[in-house]
Amino acid sequence: MNENIDISVDFAGLRLTNPVFTASGTCGYADELADFTNLNSIGGFITKSITSKPRKGNPAPRIVETDSGMLNAIGLANLGLDAFIEEKLPILEKLSPAVFVNVAGQTIDDYVTVTERLSNEEAIAGFELNISCPNVAKGGITFGTDPDQVTEITSAVKKASGQKILMVKLSPCVTDISIIAKAAVDSGADALSLINTFTAMAIDIETRKPILANRTGGLSGPAIKPIALYLVNKVYNEVTKNTNVPILGLGGIRNASDAIEFIIAGASAVAVGTANFVEPDCTAKIVEGIEKYCQQNKITNIKELIGSLEAN
Amino acid sequence: MTTSTQQKGDFLATVSANRQIGKTFYRLTLEFTDIGAQAFAKTIPGQFAQLDLSNVALPPAEKIPAELSDKADRQILLRRPFSFCNLTTKNNKTSAEILYCVLGPATLRMTTLSAGNTIRVIGPLGNGFSVPENKKTALLVTGGMGAGPLLHLAKFLTTDFPSIIVTAFAGAKTAEDLPFKGQLDNISQNLGFSIPEFATYAIESFVATDDGSAGFTGFVTDSLEDWLNKNNPSPAETIIYSCGPEPMLAKLTQIAQNHKIDAQLSMERQMACGIGLCQSCAVECKLDNSNETVYKMCCKDGPVFDSQLVVFNL
Ligand SMILES: Cc1cc2nc3c(=O)[nH]c(=O)nc-3n(C[C@H](O)[C@H](O)[C@H](O)COP(=O)(O)OP(=O)(O)OC[C@H]3O[C@@H](n4cnc5c(N)ncnc54)[C@H](O)[C@@H]3O)c2cc1C
Ligand SMILES: Cc1cc2nc3c(=O)[nH]c(=O)nc-3n(C[C@H](O)[C@H](O)[C@H](O)COP(=O)(O)O)c2cc1C
Ligand code: FES
Questions:
Q1: Which residues of chain B neighbour A58 with C-beta distances below 8 Å?
Q2: Which domains does chain A have, with CATH numbers?
Q3: Mean pLDDT, chain A, as a whole number?
């Protein structure tokens, strides 16, 4: 740590020691990572999506590797709200990064139930509303692609979330992401995270069948980074720039340079997903790399970097 | 199945050998030092490791088999899971050997590794095979490239459980697809000939090939069933260990059930993380005493599963 460089960020009123998060669904509930990295070195932790009842998830194959990326169709497999509170919250309580619980469901009531139950838990800093999961038949992405539904679900969950921060996670599978982002911000989102995965597919040419049992899956990893970066910059310019709503940027980040690109594009913080599978210690390295970049570029406070994209 | 609390981590391994042993089969030896050596020294047969091969070069175009040339174009991202076929610890160094089959972009890259190269390896992962009490007969059944973990188990059983009599059954499509070092004895003979690698552990072995180009003509499961009918081992004192293609494991489960013999299967799934982060590697399993099923994680709860629990969706 260099004492002359401040990489802590203000994220919707929350002070984070640094702008690096783990992305939902890619770091379990933190216990699985303990052998490989010191999670206390990062700024934020986002859980796998939680639903009110346990979900088995989809049959295998649930993933397939594609060029510089992967498709997943896990199907929101999770242990459900009760078991989450009993088994996982005590682990998350001990973490120093701010913990966000990613909430999913099939109906608005599902989302509200989960949020309400957790809204008084001290271990939790906020919620990430998953209205962008492409891998379930009902709910998920269907809420996130229609601005009216975004308004409805965001205001309902905002009411249920008490004093906690509400972050809304956006899907890139829309014609104009700014319309969705605006709907979320106008109906009470304290922060936005973007992006979730792109709906995509892969075909086995021998059998002429889709490789994933779910037929389609969500594309993540370095392959999506340039598009994610563009969308973060677009939402920053068109929606959040003159508000105090921060963006959590994600999509294909695997090193500090990737993270810095997102911050320059307008993200106040970044999340790392798929890269954890390849290098479970990568978030800690990204934190170090960001600090080094600041030092080399004589940036004393990372705030100077957020949205600092210059015109050509 | 063994659940271990052993230390695991992401370690740097140095390649000490990488030899071709058949048309599509290679043996890679990795050497670990320091804490990596300590962690891997305790590897239980059936456990596996995640190899990062993304920075390893492809072979030159003329050395890439035509049927893999399109696959070779794919830029790989994820690590690849491999189990071990042999393990030795000496002078604070652990050598771990992997038997691999060249199938796609990652295993093609693997063939270009040579002594002195380094790669990152996460492990040891998963549960591994276990040896229940009172077993006197162990039957190892391998299909195709599934031989690796069973060679490791063969060594482990003969050194740590000398009272257990081990017999191996190896199946493949053709003689060329048998993934073993050295020449098979008595290629012409139908039964009772041995695979040199199992013979070094004084283990009798039987070969079956679909086309009869070596050993018994037919499936390895048929050859096992013949043996069971002839030898009638006491079910309570017998255990079957297996690794191979899923249709074979399903057939084996049926045979084990008919003969009331326990069986442990090493399963494979496409894995993204290998360490329980992503839930990619779902294996459908029966819940005890009910018709309900759950998905267990191949990388954490497995890769070794009790055959009675697995639901096969073929
Ligand atoms: C626990 C575990 C242990 C393993 N141990 C060994 C071993 O000891 N030796 C060995 O040669 N291989 C082993 N494998 C399989 C090995 O991981 C794959 O062959 C390898 O990942 C292929 O990578 P690739 O990029 O070369 O080919 P890819 O293009 O990724 O795959 C080539 C072909 O193999 C299929 N395939 C790939 N991975 C799997 C899988 N996990 N399950 C079923 N089909 C698959 C693909 O669908 C494709 O048809 C193991 C797998 C697991 C899960
Ligand atoms: C295996 C896997 C599981 C995921 N599960 C969830 C999930 O449960 N909820 C969610 O909001 N996003 C989920 N995501 C999406 C990621 O959080 C992230 O938005 C996306 O993968 C893009 O980031 P990346 O390229 O860094 O992975 C998942 C992604 C992957 C690869
Ligand atoms: S491969 Fe990620 S949980 Fe098993």
A1: 282
A2: 9-304 (3.20.20.70)
A3: 94
> Using CA atoms, how far apart are residues B310 and B286, in angstroms rounded to an integer?
6
Angle subtended by helix axes A282-296 and A256-265, to nearest 10: 60
> Can you tell me the mean pLDDT for B65-87?
95
pTM: 0.94
Domain end marker among B125, B148, B164:
B125
The reply to whether B114 and B142 lie within a common domain is no
For residue A171 and ligand 2, the question of a CB distance below 6 A is answered with no
Interface probe with A: pick from B5, B11, B295, B299, most Cβ of A within 10 Å? B295
Look up residue B48 and give its DSSP letter. E
CB contact under 8 A, A277 and B273: yes
Can you count the helices (H) and strands (E) in chain A?
Answer: 10, 16
Name which of B52, B277, B283 is nearest A32 (Cβ-Cβ): B277
Residue B195: CA atoms inside 13 Å, Cβ hemisphere, count? 25
Chain A residue whose CA is closest to B80? A278
Residue B110's pLDDT is 98
Q: Is pLDDT of A214 > 70?
A: yes
Q: Could you tell me if residue B235 is inside a domain?
A: yes
